[in-house]
Amino acid sequence: MELLPIGATIHENEQFADHPDCQAGLAMTVDFFNKIGHTPPWIGYFALIDDKLVGSAAFKGKPKEGKVEIAYGTFPRYERQGVGSEMCRQLVLIGVHFKTAHHLLSLSVTNCQRPLLAATLMLIMACAPCSLQR
C-alpha cells in the first residue's frame, strides 16, 4: 500500500477529482485544510493498492502537546480485506518516524464494529507500544 498525499487545494488533486469514491472526501479534506492548514506529513492521504484507490487516511491536524488524532476509512468494495488496518499502521509509523507524536490522542474509525476496533487497538500497540494513551 502507498499513501498518496492530498494537496492543499482542489487544483493540486486532479488525479483524485474524478474518482467516484474520492470526490466527497476530497472536498471535505481540502475544506478542512483551509481551516487548520496543510502541514505535511500531518495531512490526509488516499490509499493505493495495485493501482486502485482503496480508502483514505488522515491526521486530524498537527500534533499538539505530543498527541495526534487519526482517522481512516476503507471504500466499501475493499472492506474486510485488511485495508483499514494497513492504513492505520502506516499512519502510526509516520507518527513514530517523526517523533513529534508521542501519543495517539483518539481514534476515529468510520463504520467500525467492536471486533475491528479491538484489532485496530492491538495493531497500534504492536506498531508503537508507547504511543497509546487512554
First-last Cα distance: 29 Å
Q: Assess the beta-strand content as a share of residues.
A: 15-25%
The whole-number mean of residue pLDDT values reads 81
- Binned, the helix content reads 25-40%
**Helix/strand/pairing category:** alpha+beta
Instruction: Tell me the count of domains.
Output: 1
Write the CATH homologous superfamily.
Gcn5-related N-acetyltransferase (GNAT)
The fold-level CATH name is Aminopeptidase
Shape: globular
- Poorly predicted regions are 105-114, 129-134
Query: What's the count of strands?
Result: 5
What is the number of helices? 4
Report the major sheet. Answer: 5 strands, mixed
Radius of gyration: 14 Å
Strand arrangement within the widest β-sheet reads 1-2-3-4-5
Provide the CATH architecture.
3-Layer(aba) Sandwich
- In the CATH scheme, the class would be Alpha Beta
The helix-strand sequence is EHHEEEHEH
Describe the fold and architecture.
With 134 residues, the chain is of the alpha+beta class. It has a single domain (2-131), classed as 3-Layer(aba) Sandwich (Aminopeptidase). Helices cover 36% and strands 25% of the residues. The protein has four helices and five strands. The chain has a five-stranded mixed β-sheet with strand order 1-2-3-4-5, with helices on one face. Helix 3 runs parallel beside helix 4. The longest helix has 16 residues, at 83-98. It is globular and about 35 Å long. The termini are far apart. 29% of the residues are buried. Mean pLDDT is 81; it is low at 105-114 and 129-134.
List the helices and strands and how they pair.
Elements: E1 2-5, H1 14-17, H2 23-36, E2 44-49, E3 52-59, E4 67-74, H3 83-98, E5 103-109, H4 114-127
Parallel strand pairs: 4-5
Antiparallel strand pairs: 1-2, 2-3, 3-4
Helix pairs in contact: 3-4
